[in-house]
C-alpha cells in the first residue's frame, strides 16, 4: 500500500526532504507531462484519466492542494503517487525523480535493519536505465561527426536534413566497432546487467558484451516526459544483413506498443490544436515538424494500436467536450491501404474524427517535402478526407458494380462500415451516398446498415456508462451539508479546523461520512493539520473503510459550494447547517415519542421529555439564526 511505502521510506530519505519535495512540486506540471489538463472551475483542472478508458474527463487535479483524484476509477493521491502509478515506480524512485526535477539534494539516513549502505544511495532501476540512455545519446551524437559516419550524414542530407535538424532530433551514429559504446558505459559505472536490461548491449557468442547497434544511423526515442528510452536504427550499408530498421527490444522502460516517436516535441501543439498527424517513420516526423506541421508523431517498429490511441487521447483531450482530429498519412500502396482500414477498425476508440491524407503521387511526407517543398506537406494534411470515405471507396472498388452480384456484395461489405460511424446523425447521409455510389435504391442499403448495426457488440453504439467506487448518497440536504463540512476539513483545515472539531461526530448520519469524520479525528483533528497533500494522505491512511478512503480523495478535489474563497462565516454557516439537520431530526423523534406517552400515568417522563424538546427547539432556532437564513 502507499502508506506502507511512506513508512518504509521514512528511514531512508529524510522526512523533511520528502516534505520539501511535496512543497516544491507543481502537481499540474508533473501530470501535464502525460495528460492534457483544462480548467474545471474553482481553480481545479481536469483531463482524461491515464488509468482507465473514458470519453468524458473525470480525472481532476487540485493545484492548490497538490492532489489529484479520478471520479471514474477512484484512483487518487499526490504527485509522488501519480508517478508511482503512471510510471510504475517505487516510492523512492518517485521522490528521487521529483527531487531532481525541483533541484533538491536528497539526504539519506542509515537503516539499522539493513546492511551498511554505500555513501551514494543506489538509484532505482528506471533512473539507471534512463541515465544509461542519456550517456548513449551523447556518445552516438559525437560519433556522427566522425569520418566513419559519412554515410549517415549523406543519408540525412539526401532527405533534406541539415546539421541543425540532426542535432534537434538527436541523430547519431553507431560506429563500426563491436563494443565501443559498451566499454564507454562500463567506464561510466553501468553494470553488465544494466546494459543488457537497457537493450544497449547484448552478449556475444563468446559471452562478452557487445553493442546492440553497429554501423547504423540512430534516432533516440523519447517518452512523453522527454527521457530517452530507446533507439531506432537505420541500415546504411549493403553488406549489413540485418533488417532495414532495427529498434531497441522490449525493456522495463521501452514498450513499443506505448511509444510514439516525436511525442515529446509534438505534445504541446497537439493539445493546443486538438489535432495529431500520424505518420509512418522517423524522417516523416522530422519532415512534418520542419514543414510547420508540428503535431506529427510515428509508431516505433510496430503497427498503430490501442495503446497508442490511449496515449494520444490523453494528450488530445479527446473527449465529449472537445473532440480532436486524428489524421493518418499512410502510403497509397497496398500496405498503406491495409493499415488505413485497420486504423478505421480502431475508430470507435476515438471520440474525435479520423481522417486520412494520401499524396497523389503516393509519396510519404519526407519524399513530398524533398520533391515539392514545405508547402506541399502542409497541403497534404489540409486536403485530408474522412477515413470512413476512404474505407468505403476502398471496399467498393474491389467489386464489379456493373453486375448485380458485384453491387450486392459491395453493399454487404460496406454496410458494416457505415454502421460503425460514431455520429449517428451522419449515418443516413452515408446511406444515401453509398446507395448512389452503388447505383442502388436507398431501402435495401438502409436495411443492410440497420442489420449490421444491430449485430454490434453491446456498448459500441453509445458511450459506456461511467463506473467507479461506491460513493455516498448526495441527494438529501443532510448528506450534502455533511459532505461540505468534510470538504472544508480536508481542503481548508487551517481555516475550518477549530469549528469543525468542535462539532461532535454524532452529528453525521451517512455511514461513509461517519467513517471519514472518524478518520479525521484519528489523524489528530483538522485543527492540528496543515493544508496540502500530506494532510489528505494522513486522513486516508487513518480511514479503515475502503469507501471512506475513496471518498477522501474525491472530497479533496471536489469544489466547495461557494463562489470565491471560503471564509470563517462560511465555515460557521456550514457547521450550523450540519448541526441543525441533526437537531431537527432529534426534535422529530422526540415529538413522536412524546405523542406516544400518556401524560397522566407517566407525568415525570412526559415533562422530562417536554423540557428536552424545548431545549432542542431553542438550540435549533439559534442554529437557524447562525446559518443566516440559508436553509
Describe the protein.
The protein has 27 helices and 17 strands. The two termini are 42 Å apart. The protein is flat and about 110 Å long. It has 5 domains: 2-102, Zinc finger, CHC2-typedomain (DNA Primase, Chain A), CATH 3.90.580; 125-247, Alpha-Beta Complex (DNA primase DNAg catalytic core, N-terminal domain), CATH 3.90.980; 260-390, Dna Topoisomerase Vi A Subunit, Chain: A, domain 2; 398-454, no CATH class; 477-626, DNAb Helicase, Chain A (Orthogonal Bundle). Residues 1-11, 112-122 and 456-474 have low confidence and may be disordered. 50% of the residues lie in helices and 10% in strands. The chain is α+β, with helices and mostly antiparallel strands and 631 residues long. Strands 12-14-13-15-16-17 form a 6-stranded mixed β-sheet, sandwiched between helices.
Outline the fold blueprint.
Elements lengths: L1 H8 L5 H10 L2 H6 L5 E4 L2 E4 L11 E4 L4 E4 L5 E2 L1 H9 L3 H12 L22 H19 L6 H9 L4 H6 L3 E3 L5 H8 L4 H7 L2 E3 L5 E3 L4 E7 L5 E8 L9 E3 L12 E2 L1 H11 L1 E5 L2 H9 L5 E4 L6 H11 L8 E4 L5 H12 L7 E4 L8 H8 L1 H9 L2 E2 H10 L7 H16 L7 H12 L3 H13 L22 H15 L1 H10 L8 H12 L10 H10 L3 H12 L10 H28 L7 H24 L5
Parallel strand pairs: 13-14, 13-15, 15-16
Antiparallel strand pairs: 1-2, 2-3, 3-4, 4-5, 6-9, 7-8, 9-10, 10-11, 12-14, 16-17
Task: Name the features.
single chain, 631 residues, alpha+beta, DNA Primase, Chain A, DNA primase DNAg catalytic core, N-terminal domain, Dna Topoisomerase Vi A Subunit, Chain: A, domain 2, 5 domains, 5-stranded antiparallel sheet, 27 helices, 50% helix, flat, disordered N terminus
